[in-house]
Amino acid sequence: MNQAVTPKAPVTGLILSGGGARAAYQVGVLAAIADLLPDPASNPFPVIVGTSAGAINAVGLACGALHFSEAVRRLTAVWQGFHCHQVYRSDWPGVLRQAGRFVGNSLFGFGADAPVALLDNSPLRELLGRELDFSGIHAAVSRRKLRAIAVSAFGYETGQSVSFYQGRATVDPWFRHRRVGVPTRLNLEHLMASTAIPLIFPPVKVNREYFGDGAVRQLAPISPALHLGATKVLVVGVSGNPQAGAPQPEVVRVRSTRSPSLAQISGHILNSTFIDSLEGDIELLERINHMGRLMPADLKNQGMGLKPVEVLVIAPSQPLDQIAARHRHELPQSLRLFLRGPGATKASGAGVLSYLLFESGYCSELIELGYQDAMAQKQALLDFLAIESLTPAQQVLVE
Asked: Residue 274 gets which letter from DSSP?
């Protein structure tokens, strides 16, 4: 006699992509979610995955998973108070010293054994060391408020995308082509490795290998969340293309009058690293979901169908490089001179600036944009998070 099988409760995953200072946008989305929750302490995301600057937000949430809204409040305070000197050396001695090291290493091989890059991000290490209590992850997992948290990094020797994760013992490691999942006790080194943008920030050694920004060669950004047990995912991106398959604006071809600046070229490289893989993975997942819906019912009943993965995407409704261009005056004078030559301080090179402008005015505007964009999808979020209704106080807050 066949017994009725009780369907398992869905496991909600949160995916926070990389993007340097652009990740301030994610904090605004998280603040909106916190305002929508009936219980401000409850963590709505048992699985959290972050890459690069998104890993900072992911770990911040995981460390405070015992009280979600308080964790979001702390993240918001950090991003709203950001200044470039808290992320990388922006004083004249620091900039000139790092530039000299970079040139000496690149052209003459001086100090070849020491990791070198254009910017010295030691201030970020100090800031994260003060703000994050990694013991909170273990406490949240132990009290079953968190299933798993993962941060991704890129191995320079193996060429693999490695997802370092901490979670319940029931989560198994995975091994795929150039991407693996490694269980560990997360610490500051994993986070610094995930945020180490190649050439801009120095690589970080974790165990036996040097690692860099997790967005590099990340072929399947959504995959780690699924390996950790998520059955549906909220993706908070940092590009201006919120929906895969949505109508795209017509591209107007213009005649080039001059060659692209170094900043323009670098901006496209950064976009291809931080954005393109995620958008491609979302589009692929939507196609797989569509194929699964077309499978005959008898095959689905036999367990041969493709299990659909519900995906909700929230991404900027405005171009972030244009917002960065409006705030370029906030860049420290030393960095302004340093980036003027490549063209990053011009409107055409604002793509690079949008990743490096860790200043309160720019970050605060991104936070507000994220909040408004999330509230524009309020009903979709309520349905996705299975929130049946809002309290009167919440209704007043979000209207």
From this structure: I
What pLDDT, in 10s, does the model give residues 240-256?
A: 554 444 455 554 555 55
Q: Give tens-digit pLDDT for 45-58.
A: 999 999 999 999 99
User: What six digits make up the tokens of 306?
Assistant: 């493709």
Three-class secondary structure of residue 140 per DSSP: helix
Give 98's DSSP letter. H
Q: Among all chains, which residue has been given the structure tokens 């920030």? A: 201
Nearest to 141 by CA among 167, 164, 118, 115: 167
CA-to-CA dists, residue 73 to 18, 64, 77, angstroms: 20, 10, 6
CA distances from 319 to 241, 242, 280, 350 (A): 9, 11, 19, 10
Which DSSP symbol is given to 197?
A: -
Structure token digits, residue 237: 């991106």
Which position has the token pair 């709505």?
A: 44
Q: How many residues in total does the chain contain?
A: 399
148-155/232-236 β-pairing: unpaired
Tell me the whole-structure pTM to 2 decimals.
0.84
Q: Which two tokens stand for residue 219?
A: 């072929």
Task: Output the pLDDT for position 136.
Answer: 97
